Amino acid sequence: MSEADGVKGPEGGRLAGGDAPAAGASPTGEKELSFLDHLSELRSRLIRGLVAVIPAVFVAYELSGRILAFLSAPLKALLPPDKGLIATALPETFLIHLKIALWGGVFISAPFWLYQLWAFVAPGLYRSERRAAARLTAAGVALMAAGAAFAYYVVIPAGFSFFLGFGGGEVTVLPAVSGYLSLVMTLMIAFGAAFQLPLLLLFLAAAGLVDSARLSRFRRFAILLIVILAGFLTPPDVISQILMSIPLYLLYELSLFLIRGRERASAAREAAEASEKGGVAAEASVKGGGAEGGGGGKAPGDTGVGGRDN
């Protein structure tokens, strides 16, 4: 950044006139921290986030029974009324409730520890970067929730129905609670992570690593990679793989559409800026030409050809 660009002010803006910060001061006007100071600040933020998780774990433990009932509802809807999940060891039910409490505590306390992470990163960002980061964070959370909801309401019932169809009258299916919950949580996390594809592609486009033309030419290979990824992230059944491949491909097309819109907006902005600069240059040229033409006009007392006075 050149000196003319200025530096960030206390609110993330730039100081007028491009004045450089005082020696020992950060771009935000505060005293610049050393590497060890940054590590100390990060440790403090992490400790605050972990401390917030502890009471949330106790709250989640009180709600673990309801959470377990919610997570097991898709399977119970497919089993006979007198059937359900089973425990294969005495401490298994306690460990299941403890596992739910830990994951639930992390989820419930997410607003607080995410704020601590944001408070550590935000001072080094410009105001525009803060707004963009806030929008990306909100979009990431929304896409994560959408992916988990899609897994819970669509993929899990369809996949479990496929597996239970092989039981028949000769085999009684008695799912273990630990294996079931591990599978459900893995699917919800995997779908939530996979639904971050638009953000990943938009980030790569903003960094100049990809563009809409490349993504359009890469579409056939992208479909192949999506199918392979779905095969790794889902159970070994065709239905789950298809149910994951379809939304991922639609998200790829959505990303391509958004990147094209971003490119058109950028091109229109650059054209407007170029037009504005051209208009300013033309106006300056007209003024300059008028000044030169004015220099050839008649001087006071000049009466005409030959400079004679009548």
CA-to-CA gap between the ends? 67 Å
Low-confidence blocks of residues: 1-28, 296-300, 304-310
By secondary-structure content and strand pairing, the structural class works out as mainly alpha
What proportion of the residues form beta strands (DSSP E)?
A: under 5%
Report on the architecture of this protein.
The chain has 310 residues and is mostly helical. It has 10 helices and no strands. It is flat. Residues 1-28, 296-300 and 304-310 have low confidence and may be disordered.
Offer a quick outline of the entry.
This protein has 310 residues and is mainly alpha-helical. 69% of the residues lie in helices and 0% in strands.
Question: Which secondary structure elements does this structure contain, and how are they paired or packed?
Answer:
Elements: H1 35-62, H2 64-76, H3 92-108, H4 110-121, H5 127-164, H6 177-194, H7 197-206, H8 212-217, H9 219-233, H10 238-294
Helix pairs in contact: 1-3, 1-4, 2-3, 5-6, 5-10, 7-10, 9-10
What labels describe this entry?
310 residues, mainly alpha, 0% strand, disordered N terminus, disordered C terminus
